[in-house]
Write the structure tokens for this entry.
Amino acid sequence: MRIFAVDTSSLAASAAIIEDEVLLGEYIIDHKKTHSQKIMPMTDELFGSCELKPSDIDIYAVSVGPGSFTGLRIGIATVKALAHAVGKPVVGVGTLEAMAYNMPFCEYLLCPIEDARRSQVYNAAYKWNGGVLDEVKAPNAAGIDECISGLGNETVMFIGDGIAVNRDFITDKMGDNALFAPAAYSRQRASSVAQAAYFKARDKSNIKRYTDILPVYLRKSQAEREYEERERNGK
């Protein structure tokens, strides 16, 4: 089974192709430019390097959020267009779930934390059990204090760009129970989206038409919040 995956949920943009569980190729760019400028040239280059055509892909996969509102829309639109063009199905993968695949079979509780701004992080908790990733805490948006208060007293491995802003606070509150993934493992990666999609595709209910894939935002956009604030103030 060949899977092409895209992740544009954060500042980094990435695309990857796997065949079964083997990574054939991955491109990651985390330097200037916008996702709309990067993702299609990256996709074209990846297909060319792997000597594949879009019709050679069995399943298209994409990170559906949470994450950057604009980034998610770009990634989902890209995958929808490709899947529609060649008549292939799509699997949507949660951003935080995919991040847990950055560290397969980690013995500790995994807590992806993604900077959501406004003093919040998108967060969740997962645990590897016998090669299966179990969701321990559902994705949500919360302050870092609320996030760590629900993790109990066990050792936790934190992953994600939320580490940079919150590391000192987490260490102060959790001490030796807090571990932090190396920077190379903390970025969202399309290869992890592809791996998650590979296992999710075993359940046919996770395989969708391209029209059925929608972003998961978890909270309202800044524009929506500002509009509601103006409405409350009668402006």
The longest strand covers residues 132-142.
